[in-house]
Every structure is written in structure tokens, then in C-alpha cells.
Amino acid sequence: RRLSRRPPTTLLDVFQEHARRQPRRPLVLFGDEVLTYEDVERKSNQAAKVFSKQLELEPGATVAVFLPNAPAYVWTWLALAKLGCAMACLNCNARGRALQHAVAAAGAVAVLSTRGEWGQHGVGGGGGFVGEVGGLHGLT
């Protein structure tokens, strides 16, 4: 039913409704860290602002995400959804040519990563949290 609505209800819509109704309810448990809907909403809004300013992302753009399994993955996805961008999920076990092919095949305008992922997998130059596809210029 939700998909037959115009516009359809998205996962982002559902998340934001839960964040409004029960902001202090736990959403993410990662090790000893507990993040509430309110925490994730705030972090995703902050990330969306940074991505918008630093990368000048347009709705409809594809952004490759090369992050380990961690809470940042959740708010990065939500931030990109808020900006109207598609997220191409890159396997953090990919290396070398396979990783370069995945980025190219996604048609990504940018790659988001932690510093450790680029250095660990031998892709790009100086690394950084945000890297532009091509030169992979790091932004801190």
C-alpha cells in the first residue's frame, strides 16, 4: 500500500516519523554504544549539510560508500537519502582493480570512506573521509 501512494512512502519517511514520535527510543546498538532515533537524525542532518557544502551534490547523483559495518553507515545512508542521492554500497573487502571497477560501474560522483579504508585497501592517494572520484582528494 505504501508504494502505491503518490509519492510513495520511503524508508526515510518511516525513519523520520519514528524520530518525531519517539526520539529517545534506541535505534542502533553497536558494542557498548546506544544511539537513539534523535541521535541518528541529528548525525544524518549534520552529514547531509557537510556533503551538500563540500561535494555540492545534486539530487539524483550517485555516491559510492566504502565504509565498514559501523553506525556511521546508517547516518551516511540517511544523509544521502535526505539529499536525494543514490548510494552505491561498495564491499569493504574489495581491493585494487575490483574496487576501482565497482566505483566506475556505479557512476559515482564521489566516494565516502573512512581514512583507514583507503589506506588499507591501496586505493587513492592521501585518503580522507570524502574523496572525489578520479583524484580522490581528501576532505577532513
UniProtKB/TrEMBL annotation:
Limits of the AMP-dependent synthetase/ligase domain: 15-112
Catalyzed reaction equations: tetracosanoate + ATP + CoA = tetracosanoyl-CoA + AMP + diphosphate; a very long-chain fatty acid + ATP + CoA = a very long-chain fatty acyl-CoA + AMP + diphosphate
InterPro entries listed in its UniProt record: AMP-dep_synth/lig_dom, ANL_N_sf
UniProt KW Nucleotide-binding keyword: no
GO-annotated biological processes: bile acid metabolic process; long-chain fatty acid import into cell
Record keywords, A-Z: Ligase
Keyword flag Ligase: yes
Gene3D superfamilies: N-terminal domain of ligase-like (3.40.50.12780)
Any GO CC annotation of this UniProt entry: endoplasmic reticulum membrane
Coiled coil: none
SUPFAM superfamilies: Acetyl-CoA synthetase-like
A Gene Ontology molecular function term of the record: long-chain fatty acid-CoA ligase activity
Family stated for the protein in its record: Belongs to the ATP-dependent AMP-binding enzyme family.
Protein known as: Long-chain-fatty-acid--CoA ligase
Organism: Crotophaga sulcirostris (Groove-billed ani)
Lineage per the UniProt record: Eukaryota, Metazoa, Chordata, Craniata, Vertebrata
